[in-house]
Each structure stands twice: as C-alpha cells, then as structure tokens.
C-alpha cells in the first residue's frame, strides 16, 4: 500500500468548504486504498499568536470535524501534530538542508509576512515550510493530498527529499502532490477570482461548515455571478458560476456537462436555490456528527492519543535512520 499524509490547521470556528472539497474529501476516499495519516497541525498554528484556551478548543474542534467528515480511526491514523515530537526533531535536520533564499521564496511566507510586517513576523513562520517537509518525510509518505495553495511547499518537500537522498543515501520516497484538478481551488463566493480563505475572504464569501444551515443557504443565494444569464462552465469568463458548478458537481457526483444541460434556459436563481439545498443537506448531518464528537471530549482525546501512538511508531523509526545517516552517535 502506498502511504499518504496530510494536515490541516486548527482554525477558530470551523473548516470551510474549500478545505473540505480541496483536501478532506480526498482524505476520506484515500483511507480506503492507502496507508493514511492525517493530522491537525497545532504546531503550525502557533506561527501566528494564538490564545492557549482557544487553540486547545480549536484543535479538538478540528479533530471532531475530521471524524465527522468521514475519517475512520479504524481505517486511518488521525492525530495531533504536537503529540508526535519527531516532527520537530526531523524539522531541524530539514532546516539545515534548506537554503535561506529557498525558504524566503515561499509565496505563503511572503504574503503573510508582508501583511504582518517584519516585527510581527516570527521565525516560526519563516521555518513553517521546513516543519511541513518534516511532517511528510517522517512518515516516508508517497502522496500528499492537498489543495493548489500547498503545491509550492510540496515542491520544496520533493527537493529536500532528493537532496537528503543524494547526500546521505536513499532514504525517502520523493512524494507526489495529490491535487485534484476540479477542486484544487474553491473560490470566494463574493470574489470568485480569489480562493476561499479564512484570512483573506469576507465572512459572506466563505461557507463555514459549522454555520447555521440558514446562513449557508443565504451565502449561496447571494454569491456573486455575472451579468450574463447562461449557466455554463468557463473559469476565465464566468468564475462565479463556474465555482458554483464545481461545488454542485462535486457534492452530487454529477458531471459539469450534465449540469449545463439540466440548467439550460434556467436562471442563476434556480441554480443557487438547488445548490443551497444540496450544501445544507450535506452540512446538516456534518454539524450534528461534529457536535456528537465534541460532546465526549474524553473519547475524542482517546482516539487522538491512539492515533499519535501509531504515528510515533513509524516516525521514530524514520528519525532513528535519519540521525544515524546524518552522523549522530547512537544515544540512550
Ligand atoms: P490549511 O490548513 O491552510 O488547509 C488545509 C487544506 O485545505 C486546502 N485548501 C483549499 N483547497 C481548495 N480550495 C481552497 N479555497 C482551499 N483552501 C484551503 C489546502 O490546500 C490544504 O490542503 N500547510 C498546510 C497544513 C500542513 C500540511 C502538512 C499539509 C502542515 N503540514 C503536511 C500537507 C502535508 C495548511 O496550512 O493547510
């Protein structure tokens, strides 16, 4: 079995539809066919200041949402990044293999640090991609299911894997990004030229998975489209309508062409009304499953601790091999 690894940040409130369609949906599918490791990246979360109590709540909330979305602890390994110290231990080795300029070219770092200014930007934000490389390599993952915005970090991961292998001998598979073209980038409902994102979008532009279903329906009905009236997929000329069609097609398993035929001669209103129903039908049970997991935090923590134990077994083997190859004297 090939191995997959991926991670998601614990955010305040809930995941958004971009997270689900771009990443988590694939995680659920891949647990059937792959040796799968999925984590909540709480270590990555503190690269931006976080209130401790909120971080703890958000991490549990994130884990509950992953389980509610369909991750099954019997079929995959679900855990919190901070429970597996090998990530940060391997990260140091990765940092020592990463060029300063190479790290400085990461566009997510450039965007976030430009917004914050250098005094607010932490060294952790700068080394964030090195930790992500370590996350992937410590499991010797073959594939990494993510959205388009993570592609550059995965290119870095591939380069570091190759660099390590050529310097110290074959150790890591060079991991492939697993990015589905159709859902690689879900767009903001109010500005369909930018990705749906908690940090960039207005609340009206993001479908938060734990929103009241009524709010969700309202957001879809007020999505920005265009002055044309034809329901047709054209990402360049009709980004708003195309985004709605993508969401519709993915959640229902219908082809885009089929949808174009179904809505021929109908207005945007009809498309939005139907899509609002489809999305609320999906989020309603998702919300109640999330609440069920959160209602029993002890059981949730047990799932996460078991996951971390499984993850550590593999991660500590990799770390041992790496430390040996790098030339550290065997320790206690
Ligand atoms: P994060 O938490 O920002 O996002 C989680 C996943 O959601 C995807 N995504 C989207 N996909 C499509 N359309 C969108 N609008 C959209 N917005 C977000 C992201 O691409 C991601 O797959 N650095 C990572 C977390 C991470 C990680 C890792 C991922 C840490 N270590 C190791 C893979 C492997 C991040 O911040 O994702």
Automatic annotation (TrEMBL):
Enzyme class per UniProt: ligase
Key words, A-Z: Aminoacyl-tRNA synthetase, ATP-binding, Cytoplasm, Ligase, Nucleotide-binding, Protein biosynthesis
Keyword Cytoplasm set for record: yes
Residues binding ATP, per UniProt: 9-11, 18-19, 147-149, 186, 195-199
Protein's UniProt keywords contain Cytoplasm: yes
Chain residues that bind L-tryptophan: 135
Primary localisation category: cytoplasm
Molecular function GO terms recorded: ligase activity
Localization of this protein: Cytoplasm
Catalysed reaction, written as an equation: tRNA(Trp) + L-tryptophan + ATP = L-tryptophyl-tRNA(Trp) + AMP + diphosphate + H(+)
UniProt-listed Enzyme Commission number(s): 6.1.1.2
Highest taxon of the lineage: Bacteria
Annotated motif 'KMSKS' region, positions: 195-199
Record-linked InterPro entries: aa-tRNA-synth_I_CS, aa-tRNA-synth_Ic, Rossmann-like_a/b/a_fold, Trp-tRNA-ligase, Trp-tRNA-ligase_bac-type, Trp-tRNA_synthetase
Subunit and partners: Homodimer.
Its biological purpose: Catalyzes the attachment of tryptophan to tRNA(Trp).
Similarity comment: family membership: Belongs to the class-I aminoacyl-tRNA synthetase family.
Protein name per UniProt: Tryptophan--tRNA ligase
């Amino acid at each position: 079995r090939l191995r997959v690894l991926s991670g998601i940040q614990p955010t305040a409130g809930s995941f958004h539809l971009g997270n689900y369609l771009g990443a988590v949906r694939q995680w659920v599918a891949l647990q059937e066919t792959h040796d799968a490791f999925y984590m909540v990246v709480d270590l990555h979360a503190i690269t931006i200041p976080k209130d401790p109590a909120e971080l703890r709540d958000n991490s549990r909330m994130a884990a509950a949402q992953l389980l509610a979305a369909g991750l099954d602890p019997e079929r995959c390994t679900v855990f919190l990044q901070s429970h597996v110290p090998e990530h940060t231990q391997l990260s140091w080795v990765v940092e020592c293999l990463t060029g300063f300029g190479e790290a400085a070219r990461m566009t997510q770092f450039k965007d976030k640090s430009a917004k914050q200014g250098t005094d607010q930007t932490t060294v952790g934000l700068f080394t964030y991609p090195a930790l992500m490389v370590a996350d992937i390599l410590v499991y010797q993952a073959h594939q990494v299911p993510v959205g388009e915005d993570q592609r550059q970090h995965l290119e870095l991961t591939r380069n570091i894997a190759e660099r390590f292998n050529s310097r110290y001998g074959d150790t890591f598979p060079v991991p492939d990004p697993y990015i589905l073209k159709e859902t690689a980038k879900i767009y903001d409902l109010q500005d369909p030229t930018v990705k749906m994102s908690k940090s960039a979008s207005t609340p009206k532009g993001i479908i938060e998975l734990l929103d009241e279903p009524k709010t969700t329906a309202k957001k879809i009905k007020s999505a920005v489209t265009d002055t044309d009236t034809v329901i047709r997929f054209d990402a360049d000329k009709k980004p708003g309508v195309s985004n709605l069609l993508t969401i519709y097609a993915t959640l229902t398993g219908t082809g885009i062409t089929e949808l174009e035929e179904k809505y021929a001669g109908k207005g945007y209103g009809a498309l939005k009304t139907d899509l609002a129903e489809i999305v609320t039908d999906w989020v309603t049970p998702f919300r109640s499953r999330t609440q069920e997991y959160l209602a029993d935090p002890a059981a949730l923590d047990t799932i996460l601790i078991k996951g971390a134990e499984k993850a550590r077994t593999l991660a500590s083997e990799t770390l041992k091999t790496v430390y040996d190859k790098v030339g550290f004297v065997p320790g206690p």
